[in-house]
Structures are given as C-alpha cells and as structure tokens.
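Follow-up to my post from last week.
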Amino acid sequence: MHALVQYIQSYLDSDRTPGAAGNFFWATVYILLVFVGLSVAVIAMNWLERKILAHMQVRLGPMRVGPHGLLQPIADAIKLLLKEDIIPAEADATVFWIAPFIVVLAAFTVFVVVPFGPTHAITDMNIGILFMLGVSSLSVLGIVTAGWASNSHYPLMGALRSSAQMVSYEVAMGLAVVSAILMTSLNDQGTLSMIGIVEAQKAQHEWFIFKFFPLGLIAFAIFAVAMVAETNRAPFDLPEAESELTAGFHTEYSGFRWSLFFLAEYSAMIAVSSIAVTLWLGGWMRPFPNLLNGETANLVFSLVPGATFLFLGAITFYNTARMPKHPLFRIQTIGLAGFGVVLAVIGLILFIPGVRVRIQDIFWFSAKVAGFMYLYIWYRGTFPRYRFDQLMKVGWKVLLPTGLGLLIATAVWAMRSEVWHDIIVPIWLALVDFLRRLL
Amino acid sequence: MNPPVATPFFFYMLAAVMIIGGVLVITRKNAVHSALALITTLLAQSGLYLMLYAPFVAGVQIILYAGGIMVLFLFVIMLISIERTQRERQFNKQWLVGIAAAAALGGLFIAVYTTTTKGQVLFPNVGRVSYVESGNTQAIASLLFDRHLGMYMFAFEIASLLLLVAIIGAVVMAKKRI
Amino acid sequence: MLDISTLHYLVLGAALFLLGVIGVLTRRNVVIVLMSIELILNAVNLNLVAFSRFWQSIHGPSALHGQVFAIFIITDAAAEAAVGLGILIAFFRNKETVNVDEVNLLKW
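User reply:
Got it. Predicted complex:
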C-alpha cells in the first residue's frame, strides 16, 4: 500500500507528460480520467444549461426528478437508452451507423493534448494546437454524412448549412489562433505545443489576452465568436433550431445515436473553450502569478479550490433549509442535504496541504473553462438567432478581414523595431535622397 | 532516446488500413462510401507521417486533406449524386487495358526496387536519425521563410497565387450565370 | 521484414499509386476518378516524406526538403480538387451525367 502511494507520488512529481515520457500505464490512467471527467462534465452541463437558462427566463427549470432536478440528466440518459432505435427505411444503414461515431471520435480525440497542468496532459505534441484544430474539423465530415445518410431533405439541408457554417468559421478561428501563436514567439519561445503556449505566457508575464492591447483582446473576441459558431450553438444554431429545420442534421436520429451527437456537441464546446483558455487566458495559471508572489498570496490562492466547493456546499445547505416542510418532500430534502455533504467533503479534502498544492493547476483550468460554459449558456439565453445568410456574412465579411488585419497588425507590432529600422527608415532615406538629387 | 517499440506493428496496421481503403475507394458503387474509405486512407497516411517523424505534415494532412478536401468532395457528391448512377455500369469499356497498364507499371516498380548495384541494396536502412524533439515546425519554417536558409520562399508565394487562381476558377466554373 | 526501412514506405507508396492508376483508368464516375487522383497524390507524398527521412540521415536533422515539397503538393491537390469539382458541376448542369465516357460533346 505504501509502495503504491510512493509510486503514485513519484509519478506525480515527474516533469513530463505521460505521452512524452513514453509511460503507457500513466497515459492510460490519464485517458480514463479525462474520459470520466468529460462524461461528468457533459452530464453537469446538461443540468446546468437547463437550470441556468430557466433562471434567466424567470422560471425554475426541472425540479421534480431529484432535489432541484439534480437527477434529471440521469433520467434523460435512461430514457435515451431505452428508446426504440429507428432507422429510416431508405437510409443507407452503414453510413447512418458510422456518422455519430465520426463526430464523437473527432470530439473526444481532441482531448489528448489539452493541458490541465504543466505535466497534466495525456501528451504534449509538438504540433498541439494544429492537432486540435485539425481533429475538431473532422466533425464536419460526421455531420455531412449524418445529414446525407438520413435520406430526407430536412436533415440534408441542415447538414449542408451546418457544415458550411463550421467550415467558414474555422478560417476565422485559424487566423485568431495564428496571431496568438505569433505572440508566443516573442521571447524565442515560438511553439505550437499547448503546454509551450502557456509556458510562453508565464515567461512573458502576461496573459495573451492583454498583450499588445487591444490586439490580444480583439483576437480573443474573434475566437470567442468563431468558437460559438463552430459548435453550432446559439446565436448561430440555425442548423439545429427546432422551429426552422426540425432539429437539422440529427432529425432522424433517436435514442442512443442522438445522445452520441449531444455528447459530441458538449465535448466540442469544452474542447474549443480549452483552446481559448490555453491561448489567451493563461491556461492553468492562477490570477496574478507574478504580481502577488509572496508566501501569503500563494497560500490564499491555494485555498480557493477548497473554498469554492465549501461555498457550493453552503448554497446547497441553504436551499435544503428552504425546501418545503411536507412529508412528501422528505426524501428530496435528505438527497439535497447529502449532495451538500458531498460537496463540503470535497472542499475539505481540497484543503489538505498535499492535495492543495497539486490540485491548483487543474482547478484553475477547469474554473476558466467553466466560465466559458456559463458564457455559452448566457449567449443562448440572451441573443436571438442569426439567419443563415447573416451568419455567413458575419463569418466571411466581418471576422475574416478583421482576423487578417489583426494578424498583420500583431506581426508588425511584434516586430516593430525591425520594421522601423529595416524597412521604413531605408525607404524614407532613399526617398529623401532621390528628391534631393531631383531638385 | 528510447527507440519506439511497436513500429513494425503500427506500420503494417496502418499500411493494411491504407491498402484496404484504397481498394474500397476504387471499387465501391456508392460515391459516399468511396469518400469515407478515402478519409480513412488519409487518416492512416497521417499516422504514417507521424511514424516518419513528420508531425507538421501529419497535422497539415488532417486539416487540409481530411478536413477540407474531403468535405468538398462530400458536398459535391451530395449536390450532384443521382440515384441511377448506382445502378449503372461502374467500370468503363477499357478496364482490361487499364489493368494491363497498371500491371506494367507495377512490374516497372518491382524492377526498380529490386535493382542492386554491385550487391548493394538500393535504399540502405536509415538507422537512428537524430530527431530534433521540438524543432520540426521550426525547421520547416526556416526552410520556407528564413532569410539565409530559406529556399522555398518563391514557391510559397507562387502557391498562394495558385490558390487565388483556384478560388476564382472554382467560383466562376460553378456559377449559373457569369 | 520486421525492420522498417525506406523501402517499405516506397513499396507502400507504389501500391497506393497503382491503386490510384487503376481507379483513374477503369472507373466511369468522375468523382471517383478525382478521388483516385487524390490517392495518387497521396502516394507521391508518402514517397517524398519517406525520402526526406532518408535525406535527414545523410544531411542532418533539418534537411526537410521532402516534407516541404509534400506540403506544397497538399496545397496543390486542394486547388486542383476545387477546380476539378467546379468543372464537374458546370458539366453536370448541362448534361445531367457524371460518367466520363459520356463527356463526348466534341466527338465527330
């Protein structure tokens, strides 16, 4: 037992990711952890989306299934698994069967390079960001085949619109990503690897969203808009809007196959949010790592994860106290109190010094990604839907020129002394010389 | 650096996927099935690039080929694919001549690859090449862009011009009224 | 057999090239002919990248000329696929067929 703890500790203190160290066992453990964490995150997102959207619309959302609807995602999962598996009569069965798997494959393979900490990634590829952009563009193939295989015109139109939208906004995403990569090369640390990008932000003492103000901010804004359009979420969700296209490319999918699309959509949301967090928001770094660097500041910031969970537990206990005091609600009250106890226990575990030091990076990364998830839900509750031609107009006529101009501006500003001394000054001197000879 | 332990296994697996995918591409009646087989071939090829220590080319292959060109193919197949093409004859009248020509080409390849000059094998084994761990993208970039070492800058600019011409050409070709 | 050398990659590239050539010469559907052309280009790319690895063993780890050439070929293939499919759409609009042996408007 002690040897096991020692083995785990000696691994956790290593300085490389499992993939880079060639360690199959730990890579598999990390893969399982990421898979389980992603599933839990998708389930939590389901519940959170329905509750937050409901509260934004001044209603309550699911309240019946568990205390405050906490078991609603499980009820949904059971319903989806037990539904009848319908395949349209004229549909191409092989392609119909393959399409959800392509989308899920693309959405899950991306997480191989997502950095939860300086050594907490499954692997650190040399071309990390290129890999993430490329593999997330493979989901377009799954959507197109899903729409075609359904052999019905609503899914086909939804699939063509959805894939046209995703391909258009991939270009804008790519340009924003390139200008962030440009910023990593300033201290001779130019790299495409995700961990390298966060290390570059740490070495340059600046999150890239604040770098070359306002260029970093505009790049982040372009990416934030493009990533919402890339994942077909509101306000860019015309291809899957119910009133327009009867659920678009996944109209003919029911039961487990639909849940695969749903899983892939939320995983893709988490994936592009982690790209945004890694590239612009400093990845796993806590706020102010260099400004507030003392012992007490480190201690205070390391208490934040535990304090967050204790706060969530306190909110749960408060809601338990507000439950109706009727005998029929006894089970729900006990359930909610139990959930509060679980949250409080997690918070207390995160106060243990050994755990506290190690959980920092993962907590801050997850907190930033959770902030992005909240933004996604907020957008869905706030903005009206874009019409398809307006959507394409924004993608090609607004985001693409802005991205190009931003790339040029970032490049010129990053190399401003070279641009001044090697290009502008010689041209100016040559011009002055020419005019002097002329006159 | 630890030598990779599973290289022959992965090579033969990826090679099998590629060959099977290639055979499926040229024999399927349904164009969408051919396109899906081509996608698997391209992804397996990307894996082979990774085995050849070319991560940047592997990434470019996934983004451009599998994620761009194949989407284009699938779009066009869906726009113009008509059901009766699946019931028509799939192979043209000169298929025998075609296969004979391909067999002749195959014979030429075999003749070239088994040539030995004075008892030496044509392509000796590569052995341990030192791999610059974090430098593949940088090395390609220095070949493209560096002021002193970059010799492909002109080709790069011509490639961008080529893409512009291709965009304009494709738009003009596919328009209903010019 | 078990030690993967450059020759293994070249033979695989040759096999893919042959499959692509058979596809181009025997199929009637234009889209499948275009996809066989993509197979041919991929086989060539595999050859180039295998040779770049071979070249690296002779000229040092940054002699990546084969890989740069492969990137240019991928770009080229994208441009050619776009134009080819555009031509296909234009022809399909006129003649409602996607078979190569019915593209015979200029025959006497």
